[in-house]
Every structure is written in structure tokens, then in C-alpha cells.
Amino acid sequence: MYTKTLQIGITGGIGSGKSTVCKVFYVLGIPIYEADLRARWLMETDQVLVVQIKNVFGDDVYDFNSKLNRAYLAQYVFGNPERIHLLNQLVHPRVAEDYTQWFKSHEHNYPYLIKEAALLYESGSYQQLDKIINVHAPEAIRIQRVRQRDPHRTEVDIRAIIAQQLTDEERLQKADYIIYNDDSQLVIPQILSLDAVFSAHH
After folding, report:
1. Fewer C-beta within 10 Å: the chain N or C terminus?
2. Is position 187 within any domain?
3. In the 8-state DSSP scheme, what is residue 129?
4. 128 in Cβ contact with 6 (< 8 Å)
């Protein structure tokens, strides 16, 4: 039993390697809350959220089986800051509530828990966390990675996503810790040293 379980946030721009870093922490035995995956799940299973989304964006956002029409929604909000903001205003509070319940169910069994989110700062959810790790890689490397991972995305698409996220400079300034995933140094030793720091706080 741990008296205080630390809440650690992991963020980084698209293609920075957040998921890879989280997999290593998971192998070390630390549960991971993947905010973006949970958000997608909640948008189909949280009835309060489903009703809110339909009220704001119309019934066409869901198909007959109550499945979210992601392509339609993405097209509808993409490049429109006002609509993106509206959607985030609905989704982020429900994710925050879901995360709080998840944290309570795991608390005291681990020295620390991890919340992974692309929009950790933008959503305001960083405020409920103890420390933030930023996974960093230069933009050129990130674009190259995303193009290999998602061949359907063009460089223009990827740059548009990057433009909607915080700049690297802002993320680096705000972070408590930085993991450099830019092929200049090994990632696993950096993760192990942070694991030692977070595990030793008791």
C-alpha cells in the first residue's frame, strides 16, 4: 500500500513517440490511462456525452447502430477552431471524470500512475497531475514518423494537426521532465531513471 500515488502526465506532439514511451512504463508494471482512446470510447458509451454531441453537432454524427461517424465528425470540425473548441468543451470534462474514477480504483496499489494525452495542457487536465513528462522529437522527425505510420495522411494534414497543438517550445517550458526521442540518445535509460525517481518518493 502506498500512502500517496503520484499522478504523472505524458504528452508530446503527434509523432513524438508518446505511445512507445508509455509501453515501456507499462512493461515496468505501471498502469496507463490513455485519454485519447478513452475519449473515443466515451463518445459512444457515455449517454450524457452522446446526447450533448447530438444536440450540438446533429444526429448525423452517429449511425443507426449508435456508432460514431468519425470521418464525418473529423471533416465537420477540422480546420474550424470554433467547432473543435465546442467538441473539446463537451468531451474533456467527461474524460476528466472518467480519469478520476480510474485513478481512485488504482490508487494506493502503485507508486505512480500515468495519464497519456495529446492535449494535456490544452484541455486543462495537467492541473490535476503532480508531474508532466514531455516526449520530444523535432518536427521533421515527427512528420516523417507519422507519414510512415499513417500513409493516408499527407504532410499538409500532419502540419495542420501540429498547428492545432502547442508548440514544442511551449511544451518544453511547461514540462517537469523531458524524454528525448529524437534518435540522439536511448529512450529506455531515460525512462528507467524517471521510474526510479517516481518510485522513490515514498
Report:
1. N
2. yes
3. -
4. no
For residue 95, give its domain range: 6-197
Secondary structure element (H or E) that encloses residue 153, with its range: none
The CATH number of residue 86's host domain is 3.40.50.300
The answer on pLDDT for 165 being more than 90 is no
How far is residue 125's CA from residue 170's CA, in Å, rounded to a whole number? 16
E strands, the chain, where? 6-11, 32-34, 112-116, 131-136, 177-180
Torsion angles phi and psi, residue 62, rounded to 5: -120, 150
CA nearest to 95, candidates 53, 128, 51, 125: 125
Alpha-carbon gap, residue 65 to 76, rounded angstroms: 20
**What is the distance between the alpha carbons of residues 127 and 9, in angstroms, rounded to a whole number?**
10
* pLDDT, tens only, 51-99: 999 999 998 899 888 899 988 898 888 778 889 889 999 999 999 999 9
pTM: 0.90
Sheet holding 177-180, edge to edge: 32-34, 112-116, 6-11, 131-136, 177-180
Check pLDDT > 70 for residue 202: no
